[in-house]
Amino acid sequence: MNDSVLVAPDGAPGLIRAVEEVFPQSLRQCCLAPTLRNLGAKVLKKR
Questions:
Q1: For a disulfide at 9, which of 15, 17, 29, 37, Cβ 3.0-4.6 Å?
Q2: How far is CA 16 from CA 7, 27, 28, 29, 37, in A?
Q3: Do the domain assignments include residue 1?
Q4: How many domains are there within the chain?
């Protein structure tokens, strides 16, 4: 299996550690879905 070019885990420490062990050369990007949900929960509904 070839190394992935980009991995976007959800921030779970175990998943991040596993990706780093299995695909050490891959790039990692924070998954934006949880970030957007967290921001949406803090913005007033009127805005």
A1: 15
A2: 9, 11, 9, 10, 20
A3: no
A4: 1
Distance CA 19, CA 14 (A): 9
Q: Determine the Cα–Cα distance for residues 2 and 26; give it in Å rounded to an integer.
A: 10
pLDDT 10s digit of each residue in the chain, 47 long? 566 678 887 778 888 898 889 888 888 887 788 788 888 888 876 65
- Say how many C-beta atoms besides its own lie within 10 A of residue 4's C-beta: 14
pTM here? 0.53
Which 8-state DSSP code applies to residue 5? S
Question: In which residue are the tokens 């921030």 written?
Answer: 11
Closest CA to 30 of 4, 5, 11, 6: 11
